[in-house]
Amino acid sequence: MRNLKTSFFCINLIFILLFLALFSNAFFAIAAESTNSITPNDPYYNEQWYLDKIGAPQAWGIKNTSPNVIVAVLDTGVDINHPDLEANIWINNGEIADNGIDDDNNGYIDDINGWDFYDDIADPKPKFTQGFSEIGLNHGTIVAGIIAAEGNNNFGITGVTWSAKIMPLKVLSDSGEGDTGDVIQAIDYAIDNGADIINLSFVGGIFEKSLEEAIRRAYDAGVIVVAAAGNEDAGGVSHDLDIKPSYPVCHD
């Protein structure tokens, strides 16, 4: 059912969750007492107010990379050649590029950097297809950058972590809409291919048991699932999820 739409983060909650996922509790206990903060040289860092709110500079003074953490970004696709992201894109080492063979026998041919479940092809980047929108094209890349844009490289923005492995899984169209079935397939792909975190920055208004079951499979596999709570309405008022639930964030 086509009922999913892009959603930007509920900033405070989602970044705390990502921090908890990317770094250990012991790390946070130390970081809370740290006075050794780091200010990266990325030109747009000063506009990223949320990083200071969650104590990122103090945390970075102790640890600022998570190179072995794989974060699956289920979204509108990710520009894997973006200068602030290309060093932090997941590589499927079991696959040989462009040979037309499923080398690792995972059911996907030439999935070197992820998969486009919306179009069922190996290229997980956004495309300029008919009906595309600017937010649709850019949403997944923006989300990936917020999570793991390369830090202190004197370019662009600073990620929550300066180094992680972004697994791009395109599940939404270039206008920012998609089907639950594609999301379920992508969740299972992320589980099977070693993701530590799954990020879902989209919402839908319909409860679907099959999606809840897919999220449960991720939890049972030890994968942390982070979901957006939805955007405010045109008047700037946030939705009360107890009255009008959104999914997947409201799944148990």
TrEMBL record:
Which residue intervals define the domain Peptidase S8/S53 in the entry? 68-233
Q: PROSITE patterns of this UniProt entry?
A: SUBTILASE, SUBTILASE_ASP, SUBTILASE_HIS
Q: Name one Pfam family in it.
A: Peptidase_S8
- What InterPro entries does the record point to? Peptidase_S8/S53_dom, Peptidase_S8/S53_dom_sf, Peptidase_S8/S53_subtilisin, Peptidase_S8_Asp-AS, Peptidase_S8_His-AS, Peptidase_S8_subtilisin-rel
For this UniProt entry, which residues form the secretion signal?
A: 1-31
Record key words, sorted: Hydrolase, Protease, Serine protease, Signal
Q: Which domain of life is it from?
A: Bacteria
Q: Can you cite a GO biological process for this protein?
A: proteolysis
One GO molecular-function annotation for this sequence? serine-type endopeptidase activity
Family in the record: Belongs to the peptidase S8 family.
* UniProt cross-references to PANTHER family, sorted A to Z: CELL WALL-ASSOCIATED PROTEASE, SUBTILISIN-RELATED
Could you identify this protein by its name?
Peptidase S8/S53 domain-containing protein
